UniProtKB/TrEMBL annotation:
InterPro entries per record: Kinase-like_dom_sf (IPR011009), Prot_kinase_dom (IPR000719), Protein_kinase_ATP_BS (IPR017441), Ser/Thr_kinase_AS (IPR008271)
GO MF annotation list: ATP binding; protein serine/threonine kinase activity
Region spans: Disordered: 11-32
Annotated binding of ATP, by residue: K75
Name of this chain's protein: Protein kinase domain-containing protein
Organism: Triticum aestivum
Amino acid sequence: MDKMLRKLGWSAARRRQQGESSRGNNTHTVSPRPLTFHLLEEITNGFSENRKLGTGAYGTVYKGEHKDGEKIAVKMLHDILGLDNEQFEKEYFNLADLDHKNIVRLVGYCYETRRECVPYDGRMVFADITKRALCFEYMRNGGLDKCLSDETSGHDWCTRYSIIKGICEGLKYLHEELEYPMYHLDLKPANILLDEKLMPKIADFGLSRFFRGEQSQITKSAIGTHGYVPPEYIDASVLSIKFDIFSLGVVIIKIMTGPMGYFRSAEMSAKQFIELVRTNWRKRLRAASVYPLESYSEQVKRCTEIAVSCVEADRSKRPSIGEIVNKLNETETIIRNENQVHS
């Protein structure tokens, strides 16, 4: 156990020193801290059901609350034969050195082995049981998947646009601002968490990979979630930086038009879908007396165009995340300039 803890601490420190110049939008400089399993039991009320936030392929997440009121999310990794240490180390190292306001922050970890009496082959035996946990900053508003709605209800346009922009900035950090690009490979609403101000933070890096120079590669691994993976992966198991871009496009469409929006987009031409979304949002913007109406309507159109371009079947036609952020910035400039003219 001590060897593992030293490895986690030393490796994270070394990577921080090597990657310091590539960071942007820093939000913290504190290393993830080791936490005892006893403490995690205490702050989660013994991992009680009423503290459970969700369950994924590799672990169950609980809400933990320290005596001083600090809240964290505790992800206890499942005991998966042959993958226990591998999955724990992979997600830890993927997260330990990331530092961006739109990436969920790893605040601590637990790797603790103790001898326990457990049932085995019809009798009780003593065995070494390892408890593995990753601890994250607590996101009060949970997953984005819980607050998706169509154009007629739910969050207003400015809130949705802010969420879209934050996700894009987080993905830009992963793709373009690290020493080597990181592909998330499972971007979906459930893996985007919202804080108390509805700022989005990309989470769940269990499938993520750093790519050192390769433009694309073939994988035999099961990657991503059905409905968010691109056709080149479905057809030929191809991974590239455009994998995340396709997933992003689906996410943006669902933010703008609700959980069924992507299926609606498949039932008509791109031009028809873009105009339909713009018309629906224009009605709501007008009803809310949003000003300047034309500029915000144009921003809706641009966002829909971006999303549609992200889900192009030909990955070479999908934009880069840098191009997407630049286009979003242009819409903000237009709105800002019009407000200044009429102020």
